[in-house]
């Protein structure tokens, strides 16, 4: 039994000491599974032309402020500057924050920003798009069904981002390069 425990501790002890592994894998998993989702979503919010970022599509308002855009007959010009600012900021965040996480620049702050983004997105889905009325979409923890959009999927998203908040970007990041450069 002692031999088995020594073997177990030897193998997993080495793995435990690999400080680079978790933050690097968390950034990789985020890039492999979520970046495309957020960038595609960001693209749907762009208006026409090269400066489409500054004139978001009607769909952008429908995604972020579904009740407000419906109330004005889908005429975004009737919405306030506040609405434009939130839609513009959200669209920019969908492109910039994932990019910062991928390259590992301001990793912790970017991951916190993405967590906030996911929370706001979830609340909008629940109350703005009425998913609160759809138990299958909302789901529940510990229910043996791992496929709900909100409770299951978004929990995993936030967990991956929390690893980055706690561990940082890891050694294969711009953060690490800058830290080494300015510590010398």
UniProtKB/TrEMBL annotation:
GO terms for cellular component: membrane. It holds the Pfam family DoxX. It is found in: Membrane. It is a multi-pass membrane protein. Keywords: Membrane, Transmembrane, Transmembrane helix. The chain crosses the membrane at residues 20-39, 81-102, 109-128, 156-178. It comes from the Bacteria. The keyword Cytoplasm does not apply. Its main location: membrane. InterPro entries: DoxX. This is Putative oxidoreductase.
